[in-house]
Structure to design on (386 residues):
């Protein structure tokens, strides 16, 4: 195995361990010692890959983001090429996935972000791209953005533990958000559009 | 000034000082010593008033909740009597107000919430009650709940530094969420002109 590949594997093992610690013990317990214990690596090996806790957070975020990109690719492949509003459906489905599958680490990551949202900058830029696409695909861009925001609302409320909705209700509402037919009756064509 | 008024006033002074510390220095910096320095109230008095750090956070939450509740009542009073979904509109307006407040203060309260999930319960219960009202008053419960979720999404994505929308765009989207006729099928199918 090439050295670079091995180093990449170690890095991922550290991030997986960090996610476990975050999910189990919360942000406050995420220390280099805890991550070393969890991963079975030395503390030196961990700090070699991530020099600060902020560095480690960034790594965790990038890793989560990559796995969502993977999810997006798979989702797109599963849909007909000519389906309308692809980006919107994709983003809604990805948010649903975030709540369904990864409640605890996502929540821990959120707790970091509310303290300091700066690591989010690169993800925000990516979102700006998604939003641009969602607008371009839609006859009524505002309505499309509201569907996207509603998916965020459902997801974030659940992750923060604030949601008064049951899992079943939330799932039903995600179905509604994904169903273009539910929304056609609310379409307003913007002036000059 | 009677004793009750004086105590209420010192409580508000302390809570404002706590918000200042939280938004300037973060959650870890919120100690009784720091709070005494910032508010000019004795540490003994503060300990008597709040008991523990969680006590301060709970009081802050209550402070914010009461502010938003008064805001909702004010909004309802200023609303046209012909609106059909007053509870929903008030909830959307509350989210718009949250989104327009300085991020730092909101984020501090949110950070406190994330780290002390037991504090979330009261909020969740209140939302559950509101949501039941929203479903009851609306001819289309799912759409009503999704409008509410979109408002939550806009407020929360802003808080965690994820929103790619400008404040003008966000404002336009809130306006549309609040516009009842846009959300009845008949109104929507008629051309805007």
């Amino acid at each position: 195995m090439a050295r670079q590949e091995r180093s990449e594997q170690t890095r991922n093992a550290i991030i997986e361990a960090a996610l476990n610690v975050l999910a189990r013990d919360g942000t406050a317990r995420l220390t280099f010692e805890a991550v070393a214990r969890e991963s079975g690596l030395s503390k030196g090996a961990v700090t070699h890959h991530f020099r600060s806790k902020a560095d480690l957070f960034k790594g965790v975020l990038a890793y989560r983001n990559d796995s969502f990109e993977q999810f997006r690719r798979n989702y797109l492949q599963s849909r007909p090429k000519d389906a309308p509003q692809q980006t919107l459906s994709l983003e809604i489905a990805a948010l649903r996935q975030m709540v369904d599958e990864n409640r605890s680490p996502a929540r821990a990551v959120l707790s970091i972000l509310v303290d300091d949202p700066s690591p989010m900058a690169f993800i925000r830029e990516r979102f700006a791209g998604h939003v641009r696409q969602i607008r371009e695909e839609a006859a009524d861009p505002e309505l499309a953005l509201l569907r996207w925001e509603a998916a965020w609302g459902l997801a974030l409320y659940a992750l923060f533990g604030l949601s008064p909705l049951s899992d079943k209700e939330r799932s039903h509402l995600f179905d509604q958000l994904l169903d273009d037919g539910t929304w056609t009756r609310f379409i307003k064509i913007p002036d000059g559009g | 000034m009677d004793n009750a008024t004086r105590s209420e006033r010192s409580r508000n002074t302390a809570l404002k000082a706590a918000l200042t510390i939280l938004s300037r220095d973060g959650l870890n910096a919120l100690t009784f010593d720091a709070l005494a320095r910032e508010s000019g109230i004795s540490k003994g008095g503060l300990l008597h008033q709040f008991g523990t750090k969680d006590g301060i956070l709970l009081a802050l939450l209550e402070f914010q909740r009461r502010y938003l509740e008064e805001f909702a009542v004010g909004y309802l009073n200023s609303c046209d009597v012909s609106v059909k979904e007053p509870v929903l509109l008030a909830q959307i307006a509350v989210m718009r107000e949250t989104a327009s407040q300085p991020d730092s203060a909101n984020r501090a309260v949110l950070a406190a919430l994330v780290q002390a999930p037991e504090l979330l319960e009261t909020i969740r219960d209140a939302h559950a009650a509101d949501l039941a009202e929203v479903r009851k008053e609306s001819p289309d419960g799912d759409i009503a709940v999704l409008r509410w979720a979109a408002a939550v999404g806009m407020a929360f994505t802003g808080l965690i530094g994820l929103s790619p929308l400008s404040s003008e765009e966000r404002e336009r989207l809130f306006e549309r969420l609040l516009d009842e006729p846009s959300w009845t099928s008949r109104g929507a199918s008629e051309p805007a002109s």
